[in-house]
Backbone:
């Protein structure tokens, strides 16, 4: 039923009634008990359009909303491939603590020696604290993906917004992009994650690691790289 509705919308994308988009969004959200938080992450684009409505019978052109089109195509192409969530609680095989400071991000696997650390670039230092906290989770998953493959993993962060964004996505494009990156990495590697909030005092080791400054992390300036590239090519 969902696929049929999505195809009707995509085939008439220049003139779609908001009421029909809302019907599709409602069906997607109704899958939450079976499919988990992906229903909220991959319906953000739909609700972005729906929430701008002036009337339920209003016709709109969704070709100008890439996020809405992306959501529709995702559900059309993936509904039968998505893994159902477990009805019973799953025991985690790994426990990862992450944190982000003004200078960098860090994550470590409890009781193992694996550590992820990244110093922020000048542009990344200007990002919001929420972006940096979610980025720390993304970097940890990407760094440890091979080890975490086919496993259930509990993440711990002291930022409530990060927990919400990983589970539900965000209306802020750059935060939604991180949520999607985390989802696709987990799906590719068959990783099930649960992100949990903990008090700051229980996250001291990750906080300490995030504040480490790698004084040996040197690079040449963009201007000098361009100078060398002009001399000798790629």
Residues:
């Amino acid at each position: 039923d969902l696929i049929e509705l999505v195809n009707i919308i995509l085939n008439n994308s220049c003139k779609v009634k908001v009421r029909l988009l809302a019907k599709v969004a409602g069906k997607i959200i109704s899958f939450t008990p079976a499919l988990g938080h992906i229903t909220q992450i991959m319906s953000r684009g739909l609700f972005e359009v729906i929430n701008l409505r002036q009337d339920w019978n209003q016709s709109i052109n969704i070709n100008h909303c890439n996020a809405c089109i992306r959501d529709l195509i995702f559900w059309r192409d993936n509904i039968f491939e998505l893994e159902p969530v477990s009805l019973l609680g799953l025991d985690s095989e790994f426990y990862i603590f992450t944190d982000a400071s003004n200078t960098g991000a860090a994550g470590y696997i409890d009781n193992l020696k694996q550590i992820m650390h990244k110093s922020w670039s000048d542009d990344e230092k200007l990002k919001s604290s929420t972006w940096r906290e979610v980025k720390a989770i993304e970097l940890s998953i990407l760094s440890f993906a091979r080890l975490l493959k086919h496993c259930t993993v509990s993440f711990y962060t002291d930022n409530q917004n990060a927990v919400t964004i990983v589970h539900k996505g965000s209306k802020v494009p750059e935060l939604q992009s991180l949520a999607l990156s985390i989802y696709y990495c987990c799906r590719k590697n068959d990783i099930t994650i649960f992100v949990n909030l903990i008090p700051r005092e229980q996250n001291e080791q990750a906080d300490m690691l995030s504040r480490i400054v790698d004084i040996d992390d040197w690079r040449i300036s963009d201007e000098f790289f361009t100078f060398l590239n002009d001399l000798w090519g790629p």
Notes: The longest strand covers residues 94-100.
